[in-house]
Prior knowledge:
With 202 residues, the protein is an alpha+beta fold. Helices cover 52% and strands 6% of the residues. Strand 1 (2-5), helix 1 and strand 2 form a beta-alpha-beta unit. Helix 1 (10-21) packs parallel to helix 2 (67-78), helix 1 (10-21) packs across helix 6 and helix 3 (88-114) packs parallel to helix 6. The radius of gyration is 17 Å and the shape is globular. It binds L-gamma-glutamyl-S-(2-carboxyethyl)-L-cysteinylglycine. Residues 8-9, 11, 35-37, 40, 51-54, 65-68, 107, 110, 169 line the site of L-gamma-glutamyl-S-(2-carboxyethyl)-L-cysteinylglycine.
Amino acid sequence: MKLYHTAASPFVRKVMVLLNEAGATDRVELIPAAVSPLKPDAMPIDSNPLGKIPALETDDGVAIYDSRVITRYLDEVLKAGLYPAAPRLWETLTLEATAEGITEAAVLIRYEFHVRPEGSRSHDWAEGQWHKIDRALTAVETRWMAHLSGQIDMGQIALGCALGYLDFRHSDRDWRSGHPALVAWYDRFAGRPSMLATLPPG
Ligand code: 99T
């Protein structure tokens, strides 16, 4: 299998953490692809017409995207057991979707100030994205701490990668403030070998 990859992407990192947890990093060849909304041809558009990474080419030559489809696919192929049976599955998927929303908002803020031309940037719009992140972190503290103390799953991995991305790209904002239980969980989770092996570039 081939994975279009950059170590800076939190979406790619979820896939890499899954591969590490499953002991299957050797099953995937990493193809560097430094895409941005203004550089979609940094990867083959045949593999994802949206020009986004991660995109996976399976051994059968089929292209699979986006990251949540790739992790479901790899979980099944590798029998990684990171999507539990229902009813816990619905909690896992909702947590995964919440983490994805945090990550998407954080990437939009990053693009607003590093990709969008200077004259058309909006601080209000970026603040709106940050408020989504803050509300979601509060919701995780309120609703998911029991789930987070259970067996590792893709919801936890997505959340760990989302928080890692906040540290990586938004260290000027203090996501930890007001979220002590989440901080305690993340401090433990970030020490997993799979997380340490997939840190974004220093
Ligand atoms: O938006 C673009 O055209 C290019 N951006 C990407 O490919 C980003 C890289 S993160 N990936 C996604 O937006 C994937 C989202 C999709 N829903 C999924 O796969 O889950 C790069 C972040 C950074 O450099 O800071």
